[in-house]
Amino acid sequence: MAFASSINCVGSTSPQQCGLRQSGDPHFCRFNRSKVSRHEKRARTGSQAMVVRSVFVSPEIEFSKPDWKKHFQEDFDKRFNLPHLRDILDIEPRPTTFSLKRRGPINNGNGAPINGWNGYVNDDDRALLKVIKFASPNSAGAECIDPDCEWVEQWVHRAGPRQQIYFEPEAVKAGIVTCGGLCPGLNDVIRQIVLTLEKYGVKNIVGIPFGYRGFFEKGLSEILLSRQVVENINLAGGSLLGVSRGGAEISEIVDSIQARGIDMLFVLGGNGTHAGANAIHNECRKRKLKVSVVCVPKTIDNDIQLMDKTFGFDTAVEAAQRAINSAYIEAQSAYHGIGLVKLMGRSSGFIAMHASLASGQTDVCLIPEVPFTLEGPSGVLQHLEHLIKSKGFAVVCVAEGAGQELLQKSNATDASGNVVLSDIGVHLQQQIKRHFKEVGVHADVKYIDPTYMVRAVRANASDAILCTVLGQNAVHGAFAGFSGITTGICNTHYVYLPIPEVIRSPRLVNPNSRMWHRCLTSTGQPDFL
Ligand SMILES: Nc1ncnc2c1ncn2[C@@H]1O[C@H](COP(=O)(O)OP(=O)(O)O)[C@@H](O)[C@H]1O
Ligand SMILES: O=P(O)(O)OC[C@H]1O[C@](O)(COP(=O)(O)O)[C@@H](O)[C@@H]1O
Ligand SMILES: [Mg+2]
Fold first, then answer.
1. Which one of 92, 326, 434, 513 has the fewest beta carbons within 10 angstroms of its own beta carbon?
2. CATH architecture of 67-105+120-310+459-490
3. What CATH architecture is 313-457+512-523?
4. pTM score of the predicted model
5. What is the pLDDT of residues 235-251, one digit of tens each?
6. Is 487 a pocket residue for ligand 1 (Cβ < 6 Å)?
7. Quaternary structure per UniProt (predicted)?
8. What angle do CA 466, 345, 211 make, to 5 degrees?
9. CA 309 – CA 303 distance, rounded (Å)
């Protein structure tokens, strides 16, 4: 199948770069050979007609048929439809208790707005997911649906308060849980969820300690939450509730949800946490429980699909940039100094790329999505030698998941099943020292690993705002009766998305994107291949 391998993602050479590492989904960014005749023709004539997809496209869509767009859109609407408690339960809504006006009634008691004023989101409101119309699959950063990159509208559900709600606030017990690793802004989101729940009139709010484990591990008890408890928690990093990996026993968790009488569960976490939340949602459905499971994506790596960014990412970049700045000062002040900074990014190099761009002080940025060699005339070490000889110092920024193929694999996994990576930072440090010793050139290598310092800081202003909106929207989503959804910012608008769509694969830096090209322009680095 020479053809299939020739039309993988733009600029990618491995399945990981197509988002296949976790999803194993062969359709994520590869066309079905038998159904793409025009594309095939182009590929065979040798042009660079390779296409990156921003969304999954069902293998059933036949691009050779004139009505493929209609089928795509029907399929898209079906997949992005939000699961609702009504799907399994015979329930009626009631007018909301969430008031948008300070004084006086906002509706006449049955939900109809007074004087035509209406500050609520309509269930039929939609936001456009993608706004660039690419002229060809070869346009920089093109994300296409079909081989010819035609314009296709992709509408997703708008987030926000609804006029009708599906819970009696006074009777609601709400739970909040934070899973995975830390991320700046967790406390901001917890705080906003609590404040918004109280605004609806909810009185029974609890935190589940230390992630999913808190549901069933002995000795861990619920933390009562109220405005008073959460008032100042946003002033510190970390999570008031604690976090953990592993321990996602779905049926035990749902038993525990039932035993505790939880009606709404707010789950803050990354890809793994979302998979767990979706499983909890499905188990609740199976048991016909009136439980709303709503996620807020938390990942410092910024690796959740479809979203502009996740909370904490801006803050992480700011903190990472300070580490790069220190490496720069150290390198510049030393005779033949080389500053080396390792940043987080298990499979996605967003922090390394953005921190390099923000600082403007990086000469070499290495990320998991872009393969590189260390040795040889086009290798990283030769380039560093050139930098030392030409400008006297150099700064390297590497993401933890970069260059794993150069290292010995440990085969170890953490409690959540994530592969424990080999340390590329330490490896680079050793290899740089060895190389310069071998070529007889003095080099003073200063290695900085600020990863946990980056993760532990409190959210900056822009993240604090993002956390506020996402926390509030999570509560609005639960009261609206949705379950199995997550909240996010897509193309500057706030939306709800069904969980499976955002965790098909981790979001990766597109090596053909303008942003990666800007990073290369800024660092001045060559291809290391
Ligand atoms: N596929 C999965 N199904 C159910 N639960 C999962 C899955 N993957 C991870 N989890 C659980 O989600 C939690 C967080 O996962 P982890 O990968 O550590 O962090 P993150 O959610 O940030 O990716 C852990 O408790 C883990 O056991
Ligand atoms: O040492 P820990 O706590 O397992 O965290 C390390 C990992 O956390 C991450 O920041 C990702 O965390 P999440 O999986 O929670 O999103 C990775 O970049 C890093 O590999
Ligand atoms: Mg994860």
1. 92
2. 3-Layer(aba) Sandwich (3.40)
3. 3-Layer(aba) Sandwich (3.40)
4. 0.90
5. 999 999 999 999 889 99
6. no
7. Homotetramer.
8. 65
9. 8
